[in-house]
Amino acid sequence: MAHSHHHHSSTVLSGKNLVISILLNILITIAQVIGGFISGSLALISDAVHNLSDVISLIISYIANRLTTKKKQTLHHTFGFKRAEIIAAFINSATLIVIAFFLGFEAFKRFKHPQEIESNLVIYLALLGILANGFSVLLLRKDADHNLNMKSAYLHLLTDMLTSVAVLIGGLIMKFYQVYWIDALLTILISIYLLYMSWEIFINSLKILMLFAPNHINIKDIQSKVLAIDEIKNIHHVHIWQLNDTDIHFEAHLEFNNDIKLSSFDKICNNVENILFDEFHINHCNLQPEYERDDSKDFIIQD
User: Fold this and answer.
1) pTM for the complete prediction?
2) In CATH, what number is assigned to the domain containing residue 232?
3) Residue/partner pairs of 257-261 with CB below 8 Å, 24 or more apart
4) What pLDDT digit, counting tens, does each position of 231-283 carry?
5) Which of 48, 90, 103, 105 has the fewest CB atoms found within 10 Å of its own CB?
6) Are 279 and 225 in contact (CB under 8 A)?
7) Are residues 265 and 198 in the same domain?
């Protein structure tokens, strides 16, 4: 049975940046919760709730990052903790979706009973949220490009910065025009934006956890490429799944036309592995040879 790895260079993610972002968001959360109750602004409280979710999500992301980078494979953890960051991304995106529905529901109730709001406090605290979250966004921006966990944390912070911008605009409108229903409207817009930004990460992380094949891989193309090799009669019992953002695993049975030598099998497998890596970005292969074996030859076996 042939078995190979093509390793990507590991990305060094900065735990220090996450810690700074966590501390900043704790500060913002405390300030906005107090300010929201004093001013009576639902939008400011919703921003504070979102910041609280940021704190939780960033802590989860930090723990997952530490587990992934520090914990190695063992006899009982043969994959190490490589999936920890995917679990973190799933939890973070799921919490954002729940928060979005909660904020939308509360804003709908506020529409029916608008109340006067202390706009100066809203403005000052919104500015604090913009500055602190903007700095955190810059800290995590680089790592968000190639890591689903960091992307979920980054989006938490980016959406919170944008919600603070919306709260600031609402505070200015309330201050100069006394249009207090704008607070509820902004909260609904924030909740819709949260849903939009979170859904893709939620679905992608769920697919990885469910061992679905990556979207960019056409499995029938793999079948045609492998069967184009003269010595191979059939490929079946195929499984493709992602372990995390970078590791894609592939296993299959290869049925040969002739009773070939082990050395020949190694050469053919090397060819198959190169095709899978170069054309489909699959970096972990497990191939089982067969010759006149009496078993199911279906491409995908129904277990």
Assistant:
1) 0.73
2) 3.30.70.1350
3) 257/230, 257/231, 257/232, 257/233, 258/231, 258/291, 259/291, 259/292, 260/231, 260/291
4) 999 999 999 999 887 789 999 999 999 999 999 999 999 999 999 999 999 98
5) 105
6) yes
7) no
